[in-house]
User: What shape does this take?
Amino acid sequence: MEEKKKPKSSYTKGQRICALIVVVVLAALYVVTLAAAITTSPAAPELFKMSLGASILLPILFWCYIRFAKLFGGN
Assistant: This one.
């Protein structure tokens, strides 16, 4: 019988862990912002600005990390 081969990922384990961390941080920031908005906290506008900025900045930084890791890592 032939063993089923798993498809090999083009991303390293470190890159996948970093992506998971980015997703968790963004989700936590969204939940905190939603809770602040529901409770009409005075911090809600600043949290919304942080959420908006992080939604743009974190994926860009992660993309840069992947590109530089492949460039300098030799993949």
Remarks:
- Helices lie at 13-38, 44-73.
- Residues 69 and 75 are 8 Å apart (CA to CA).
- The two ends are 33 Å apart (CA to CA).
